[in-house]
Amino acid sequence: MHILITGGAGFIGSHLVDLHLARGDQVMVVDDLSTGVRANLIAHEDNPLFRFEQADVLTWDRLGHVVGWADRVYHLAAVVGVYRVIAEPTKVLATNIAGTERLLRAAHDGGWKPQVVIASSSEVYGHNDEHILHEDQDLTVSTRAGTRWGYSVSKIADEALGLSYAQRFGIPAVVSRFFNTIGPRQVGRYGMVVPRFVAQAVRNEPITVFGGGLQTRSFCDVRDTVVALDSLATHAGRQTVTANVGNDREISIRDLAKLVIERAQSNSVIKDVPLREAYGEDFEDIRRRRPDLARLRTLTGFHHRHKLEDTIDDLIATERRNMAGEKDGHCTLVRTKSERAA
Ligand code: UDP
């Protein structure tokens, strides 16, 4: 198969690259390296099946050409991470919506109609206190929290674009709503909680729990996420489908902090940080987030291979290796010193 991955130097994208190259597919990555890094792809630099292009999907003049080459496009190029969403609200909307529109238009103009996998997010469920989030529930956007919801709005727009191009022009769309993906190569500097807690724990620094810590999330190892995603796309074929992709084990953020401390055998203490201090004035956190995975399971028979504890152990081991490398003056591939300092 010919696979195009926009945002393929990023966290989830680079794991998709690993999966498809291991299977013998040809893989092309387009990434502007705004948050992705070449180090994530270093294992494939000499692989003749792999090609990389540093370019912005909003402006790149060869986008139509590579979309026409692809059998399947994973569209992951986006502005992500709470800190970036707060700092760059206009960029979130422009990049995420216009990028998706340009990609789908290229798929239509080329006439080849590749399958397009749209990366959506559990954020589209907004403030929904349902016990478990199902794909057919209404999507809600709060009017109280200023630009906080720009990311969610951009992902709802991306979904709508994908479904519209599917209905109007017959371009098969797979809309994947990711729930808190974690694992190797994820960095904490854009806000993601697990790499932040792991980095704090291995340094015996306070673990910063925001907003009380009773809020819950359901974390899925990226190596499970990409298998589920590929499986979903394969089973969907020429059909259009929207599905949650994640893990349905739910944990509170306070319990996550305790778990990371325990697994790292760390001396860290929990430091409560009010939401206002963590993110600024107009921020509303999501209280609860757990996916209903019935659709994913029914369509694909998917089951998870990675337990939360195992993922955390992996991340702790990597973080310790990185720290040792920094002390020795070695460059690390997983996360560089300058990336962490940025
Ligand atoms: N969080 C936290 N401490 C941190 C970073 C995040 O307590 O240092 C909390 C954050 O407020 C949220 C949860 O962890 O309730 C998950 O945050 P993340 O940004 O990873 O994911 P999202 O909120 O997008 O689900």
Notable features of this structure?
single chain; 342 residues; alpha/beta; Rossmann fold; two-stranded parallel ribbon; 13 strands; 16% strand; globular; binds uridine-5'-diphosphate
Structural class: alpha/beta
CATH class of the domain at 2-181 and 220-246 and 288-304: Alpha Beta
- Oligomeric status: single chain
The fold-level CATH name of the domain at 2-181 and 220-246 and 288-304 is Rossmann fold
Helix content: 40-55%
Q: Give the overall shape.
A: globular
Give the termini separation. 37 Å
Task: State the low-pLDDT regions, or none.
Answer: 330-342
- SSE order, one letter for each helix or strand: EHEEHEHHEHEEHEEEHEEHEHHHH
Number of alpha- plus pi-helical segments: 12
Summed over residues and divided by their number, the pLDDT gives a mean of 91
Q: Say which CATH homologous superfamily of the domain at 2-181 and 220-246 and 288-304 is assigned.
A: NAD(P)-binding Rossmann-like Domain
Ligand types: uridine-5'-diphosphate
Major beta sheet, strand line-up: 3-2-1-4-5-6-11
Content of β-strand: 15-25%
CATH architectural type of the domain at 2-181 and 220-246 and 288-304: 3-Layer(aba) Sandwich
Record field, number of beta strands: 13
Radius of gyration: 19 Å
